[in-house]
Design a protein that fits this description.
20% helix; seven-stranded mixed sheet; 7 strands; alpha+beta
């Protein structure tokens, strides 16, 4: 409990410093620390199609501290299958599935993506918005679009990505 309160105080202080610096914070990609693992309760965030709700292993996330929203990967169930994600906002979890396509100008491997001029296309195949957020569905979708743009590719890497496209099917 003390760790949670301490982290919350640190995050509030960080938010105040950012606002004082005259900037509004938006989505950013960050590595996750051990002290942030409590944010992902096992009953909400688990590997897709796993009857035992096996917990996910997270190392990176896309987060907007000011709006209290984050996007994480939940994983995939196999090759040629979509990847599953969760976006948490207003203490509600929005889940979606997407195929993520990476296209570079030249023959660039994923290892050298930071030097590439790439386009990432997110093809959203399913989107589950909780009933409590249905009245503000357009805001939820706008937030999702902003988050995916900041995320870049599905590994939360924006480096080398010039364009992010999102298609809902």
């Amino acid at each position: 409990m003390l760790l949670c309160v301490s982290l919350q105080f640190h995050l509030k202080l960080q938010s105040i410093f950012i606002k004082l610096a005259g900037r509004i914070m938006a989505f950013i990609n960050e590595s996750l620390g051990e002290n942030q693992r409590y944010l992902f309760p096992r009953d909400l965030f688990y590997k897709p199609y796993n009857p035992y709700k096996e917990p996910i292993e997270l190392y990176r996330w896309t987060v907007d501290w000011d709006r209290d929203v984050f996007i994480i990967s939940l994983g995939t169930i196999g090759p040629e299958q979509p990847e599953y994600f969760a976006m948490s906002w207003c203490k509600k979890v929005i889940k979606f599935a997407a195929y993520v396509h990476f296209e570079a100008d030249e023959n660039v491997s994923h290892a050298s993506v930071r030097k590439a001029h790439a386009t990432v296309t997110w093809k959203i195949t399913s989107l589950t918005i909780p009933s409590a957020l249905q009245a503000i569905r357009e805001e939820v979708i706008q937030l999702l679009l902003e988050g995916l743009d900041a995320m870049g590719n599905s590994n939360s890497r924006r480096e080398g990505v010039d364009t992010v496209k999102v298609i809902f099917t």
